Amino acid sequence: MKQYTQIECRYCQSSDLVKNGHDEKGTQRYRCKSCRKSFLVDYTYNAWKPGIKEQIDAQTINSSGVRDIGRNLKIAKGTVISHLKKKRLNK
């Protein structure tokens, strides 16, 4: 027995939605018929997850390279560089 969850538009809270393809990771996209905006239900940006900055610091201490850290944490190397620059300026 399937259970369905009611999906609402994150912008206008309307439940009048249509499927609108997939993103590059294969996650289903939806488009609201009311406000005509497109969105993902479960959007996650890995660089903003709790604990990522601490993991960048820990891997830097262990002499991991910028590209290696980005690959391990599934974030862009530019994000790693940006964090390290900000940390260096705050010392």
Key attributes of the depicted protein:
91 residues, 3 helices, single chain, 2 domains
In short:
The chain is built from three helices and three strands.
Number of helices: 3
Mean pLDDT: 90
Give the N-terminus to C-terminus distance in angstroms. Answer: 57 Å
Instruction: Give the class from helix and strand content and strand pairing.
Output: alpha+beta
Largest sheet features:
3 strands, antiparallel
Which term fits the overall shape?
elongated
Low-confidence stretches: none
What does this structure look like?
With 91 residues, the chain is α+β, with helices and mostly antiparallel strands. The protein folds into two domains: 1-43, no CATH class; 46-89. The chain contains three helices and three strands. The chain has helices spanning 52-61, 66-73, 77-89; strands at 17-22, 28-32, 38-40. The chain has a three-stranded antiparallel sheet, with no helix packed on it. Strand 2 and strand 3 form a beta hairpin. Helix 2 crosses helix 3. The longest helix has 13 residues, at 77-89. The radius of gyration is 19 Å and the shape is elongated.
